[in-house]
Amino acid sequence: MEFCDTFIREKHIKYIVDVGNEKDTLAAIATEHLRMSGAYWGLCALEILNAGEEMNKEELVSWVLKCQNEDGGFGGNIDHDSNLVYTLSALQILAICDKMETIDADRVAVFIKGLYQPDGSFITDKYGELDMRFIYCAVQSMALLKRLDELDGDQIAKYICSCQNIDGGFGSIPGSESHSGMVFCATGALAILNKVDCCDTEKLAAWLDYRQVDSGGLNGRPEKQCDLCYSWWSLSSMMILKHVSINKEGLVDFIMHCQDPRGGMSDRPMDERDLYHTYFGIAGLIMLGYCDAHQIPSTHIDPAFALPVPVLERMGLPILRY
């Protein structure tokens, strides 16, 4: 496979649109349970590439609303059980499309608050799975609903900080291994709650510094391979902390090598492309200033909300500048 040494914006846009239009392919059927998050990845990727008009937003919003269940939450697809991950993805889509008024915010908030645990954590659904991801999803969802003050921010922050390890990173629950995905969820939730300083930011920044490997890419934990998605999970956490001391040029080079010449990006060079890595690779390049430096049409993305900055400005929500 040939290497693309320039950002192939138009091919990425075409790939994202084509994936969104797939309905009966094997890949579409195999991933129908997470279509809500896939729709968010695709829509947000197009928006930050200034190509949001390529998505049929009216059709998308109509489908999202059909995924809402009687309990107020959203599932990954129509008639799928509600959970916090897909509820956040649904709200992010509605926020981007400026259609938050189409839902009963109180009803969604009741669903979210019903999953809160006394120690400050959240389970994702009625089956009880618990980890840091669901805290982030709950906190951002309530912020988008303008109901953040209905959560006990102090208790939530206390629980999040209890998941910070001696190495500075965060695990999924207290005592579990530090991981960049959980670090993002922890720092993102704390940023939205305006409580980042309640954790040990110095140790966390040091842990993040060690995520870059020789290829220029970032990994999620020590002694692991780099993966393009950490160009978001790790880099956005650095942005939230306002501490980015990695080799930016090396990371840009790694991201460029993950491009498929047909459009789309993969986890590592020469691997198969997918929508998830395409979105986070594009977001990483934008946060690194690549698109601005090369005059590529794009829009900044907020590192805590993972939403285009103009969306947050329109909604009157706080923005992390970089």
TrEMBL record:
Co-factor binding comment: Binds 1 zinc ion per subunit.
One Pfam family it belongs to: Prenyltrans
Cofactor(s) listed in the protein's UniProt record: Zn(2+)
Catalyzed reactions: geranylgeranyl diphosphate + L-cysteinyl-[protein] = S-geranylgeranyl-L-cysteinyl-[protein] + diphosphate
GO molecular function annotation: metal ion binding; Rab geranylgeranyltransferase activity
Keywords linked to the UniProt accession: Metal-binding, Prenyltransferase, Repeat, Transferase, Zinc
Signal peptide feature range: none
Residue ranges of domain Prenyltransferase alpha-alpha toroid in the record: 8-299
A GO-annotated cellular component: Rab-protein geranylgeranyltransferase complex
SUPFAM superfamilies membership: Terpenoid cyclases/Protein prenyltransferases (SSF48239)
GO biological process terms, semicolon-separated: protein localization to membrane
Entries under InterPro entries matching the protein: PGGT1B-like (IPR045089), Prenyltrans (IPR001330), Ptb1 (IPR026873), Terpenoid_cyclase/PrenylTrfase (IPR008930)
Enzyme nomenclature, EC number: 2.5.1.60
Record-stated family: Belongs to the protein prenyltransferase subunit beta family.
Protein purpose: Catalyzes the transfer of a geranylgeranyl moiety from geranylgeranyl diphosphate to both cysteines of proteins with the C-terminal sequence -XXCC, -XCXC and -CCXX.
Assembly information from the UniProt record: Heterodimer of an alpha and a beta subunit.
The protein, known as: Geranylgeranyl transferase type-2 subunit beta
UniProt source species: Blastocystis sp. subtype 1 (strain ATCC 50177 / NandII)
